[in-house]
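Obj: model holo form, ligand = 5-amino-5-deoxy-1-O-phosphono-D-mannitol.
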Amino acid sequence: MCGIVGYIGAGNPSSKPEEVVLEGLARLEYRGYDSAGVAVLAMAGLAVAKKAGRLENLREELEEHPLPHSFAAIGHTRWATHGGPSDVNAHPHVSADGRVALVHNGIIENYQKLADELSAAGITPISQTDTEIVAHHLSLLLAAGLSLLEAMCQLARRLEGSFTLVALDRESPEEIVAARRNSPLVVGLGEGENFLGSDVAAFVGYTKRALELGQDRIVRLSPTKVEVVDFFGTPDSGREFDVDWDINAAVKGGYATFMDKEIHESPTAVAETLRGRTTLDGHLMLDDMRIREDVLRSVDKIIVVACGTAAYAGHVAKYAIEHWCRIPVEVELAHEFRYRDPVVNEKTLVVAISQSGETMDTLMAIRHAREQGSRVLAIVNTHGSTIARESDAVLYTHAGPEVAVASTKAFIAQITACYILGLYLAELRGNKFVDEVATYLDELTKMPGRIEEVLEAEEEVRALAQSMADATSVLFLGRHVGFPVALEGALKLKELAYIHAEGFAAGELKHGPIALVEENLPVFVIVPTPRRPLLHSKVVSNLQEVRARGARTIAIAEEGDEEAAKFADTVIWVPRTTPTLMMPLVTVVPLQIFASELARVKGYDVDKPRNLAKSVTVE
Ligand code: M6R
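Output (holo structure tokens):
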């Protein structure tokens, strides 16, 4: 949840370590924005600045009280868990003897026991955080004569829970040491300098070479060397990879918000996710496939596990995969799956969907599935992430970095990846011929153009949102693949505009939710194509039902759908899309724009909604 950055460079002390860390924090601020802080290791020792609130507050503090030039720096942007957001609870935390500065992402579960030990040693913490406890313990181990690496190994073996820890030792200016368990950390490999980040966005402006660290690993960085060991000090290598994200992808590029920019990047996200997927003889391929074909052929059930928006992409996958492959597909929220003793075995394929690849609930679900003998295929956007590393196969969504907390282009890329997976399995298992798959792929390649068409009507959707600035409740209805789109439209509105919003399967309306409908209640209805007459007529009936009860109806309908237009107060047109299964790629876009605009009109921070973090790395 928190963002972590580290930097160490060669030569004389300079302002670069602080600059690199602040820049990295700006790119990682989406991970948490309750407070921010930086520690530098200078000639005269450690210096720390930290402030509650946004990174901007820290920058102001640094202008008033500049830090000295330094050899190395670490930084942190926080999403509070232990202890509320305040200056004193902000990271880095410094040990009582002033020797260690430490930042932490995660939760230390045996924190109370460690705190009791400190109190017996006469150390009283000044903050309410578990991190400060760890800082004190680290300094006690250093005082006992261990090196920073040895101390970190010993301490990491004692810690329970999830953590990325990054430490500076005043007595050792030529190194930074970090540890990770169940929490992200990537190394950036430079020339005469090295970097650490919660994800590659932290340092992609400086280097494109990165090193992925395994579970329970410790890394020691000097300006010229990167040393990886496990918690017992046994050397390990990590896995080097090249970062394909562009630095420009992580800046706003003329848009008012990252969310707006990312909505506009959806066509590219689809195109990139599709790019290079077919072999010369027309067969589909995934990125990192380590599951044997005979195993995939024997799969008799698929369970999609994910959270939030990613889970809604999973709902779309269910419709597509069941239709194309005739395999039963269940979709389950990862946190529910993990703790309900699910029936899974070696014939179950678990598909994990995650933008960040670090969502703890999803990670725990895939670990559980693998323990039961299931194979796990991950659909992930972030290279080097834990879920990608711990899965048996990976299908990357090449959406580029998504900075806004609200997922938009990543959702669209996830749906695209789900179609690719469905078609891949359909061909492999003999449900579809290569030429049939090619026809579907052909349709998919037209989707970026269709999304562009929807984006051209952006101003109308924004005007609609402006006219609804006072709405206190909004409903979303959909059937078939329109149902997950309705759920996603409601989630977007809740998380950004902080108003009551609910998505329903349109057929469920008459079983209860219709009682909510009253005069002028805005109701969005995602209307399927009239080319599916049975489905279409049912949804048009639902549209009529809510209109008859006074609702203000907004139909998202296919161009030329006069029947839907008859019962809608407003129609947002989307281009004709074949097959129907692919309609979510266009129907969700107006709902994303609507939520973004309503939040803007209400004066809220579109990119960083309250109480949320982009990457939820606690259970
Ligand atoms: O990184 P993930 O895709 O695993 O994240 C899952 C959810 O936390 C995420 O989709 C969340 O619901 C978004 N904020 C929605 O916009």
